[in-house]
Amino acid sequence: MRRSVLALSVLLAAPVLGAQTPGPVLTLEEAVQLAMKNNPGYLLTSTGRTRAGAAVRSAYGNLLPNASTSFGSSYREGRQQFFAGQAFGSTSDVLSSSTDISLQAQYSRQGFLAVKQQKANLDAAEADMTSAGATLRANVITQYLSVLQAQARATFQDTLLVSTQAQLDLARARQQVGAASTLDVRRAEVAVGQQQVARLREQNTAELEKLRLFQQMGVEQPADVRLTTAFGIEEPKVQLRDVMDMARRSNPALSALQSRQRSADVGVSSARASYLPSLSLSTGIDGFSQQLTDINGQVLDAQNSALGSRASCFSTDSLRRGAGLSSIAARCNTIAFTPAQEQALRDNNAQFPFSFTRSPITFAMRVSLPIFDGFQREQRVQEATAARNDARYRLRQQELQLTADVTSAYRNLTTAYQTVRLQEQNAATAREALALAQERFRVGANTFVDVTQARSDYERAETDRINAIYDFHKAYAALEGAVGRPLR
Questions:
Q1: CB 365 within 8 A of CB 238
Q2: CA nearest 27: which of 204, 225, 234, 220?
Q3: pLDDT level of residue 14 (50, 70, 90 thresholds)
Q4: What is the pTM (predicted TM-score) of this model?
Q5: Taking a C-beta distance cutoff of 8 angstroms, is the pair 199, 157 a contact?
Q6: 419 CA to centre of own chain
Q7: Would the pLDDT of 3 be above 50?
Q8: Which helix H or strand E contains 484, and what residues bound it?
Q9: Which fold has domain 2-14+23-38+108-277+370-483?
């Protein structure tokens, strides 16, 4: 009896002893936070929100004028060109530059509706990200529970191995005093070997489940990590009607489809707006500059022009007017090409590249009304209408799916709670039966076959109890995933 009590004491104390194993710890909330930061599948949804946000800014930007500026320069060889036998152009190389600044704006009903449509798409992208986060959270919780479930089964197999080894020792002791046969000892040895195999498999399963957990989290698994979050069994306080109302209000997948339906409705209005006129406004200013690389020819022309004017001043026509020679000479001597004039001529030529001569400012306004474009507008309207109908059908499908998911998850939760209570009673009864069978075997009142059968019944009942406990918590996580928000 003492050995049986010792084995059952080890069974109950094993989880506590296992919790004292050294190593890094990981709580459920830490696992969820790490998954939100590192899970690649979840992070992919953030790129959709980024693109949707950029589309909203672009839609607003289309309502603002487009501003553009340009600058250019050119070089022309100093060679004259001939047209109709006449020579034109300078013999000097010419450098020129030009610049312009323009503003253009176009307004239509489609442009204003595009803002509303892109904002609806942004809401849908944010809802998609929230939905992905809720799904990831539910998956991490479920996998966290799977690890704890596998570890609990592995710990239970450890305690069963201790109990089986104790029965083997007892069978050998009874054989030595003639109270048991060699067959009982062999059966006990087989039971120990089978229990070692079962223990090894459960330990491997626990490690694999832990590996899948860190895969969900998107990080490397540290050595000897321990999961420390404890889960209690409490009767669910939520009601089906309440969780259904919460799901209709806060389920992110449903919210995303509702936003996409609003976007599709706006898309139909935008397609129909292509029948309306559009307004275009534009304005701009530009300038140019030009400079000769060799201005000496122009300086020489100006000097010759001044000399010619001075010579004409002394012409005989002036003498015919009866003017005195002295006054004519004084007036004509003032006609000369001075160094200051030469410098001014050179300064006026120094225009390249940024001394621009401004052209007149221009303003333009245009109203356009499309009349016929090969039935392309009609096609766009029909495609937008079909997209709106598709969005409505998908929304209705999601509403029906949500009702089914929430209802089934709620019923599974209530059933899982009742199953836990029944499995606890079954496990307690099987534990008492095992203790009784072990005691009867110790005093020789039954055979080792009876002990083996009682242990099998207890193993099955205790395993079912462990599975029922974690199935209950997984059902809770499934209900939270269906609703789209935590419930406890």
A1: no
A2: 225
A3: very low
A4: 0.73
A5: yes
A6: 40
A7: no
A8: none
A9: Outer membrane efflux proteins (OEP) (1.20.1600)
